[in-house]
Amino acid sequence: DTEVTQTPKHLVMGMTNKKSLKCEQHMGHRAMYWYKQKAKKPPELMFVYSYEKLSINESVPSRFSPECPNSSLLNLHLHALQPEDSALYLCASSQDDTRRNTEAFFGQGTRLTVV
Amino acid sequence: DQQVKQNSPSLSVQEGRISILNCDYTNSMFDYFLWYKKYPAEGPTFLISISSIKDKNEDGRFTVFLNKSAKHLSLHIVPSQPGDSAVYFCAAQRGNAGNMLTFGGGTRLMVKP
Question: Does A82 have pLDDT greater than 90?
Answer without folding.
Answer: yes
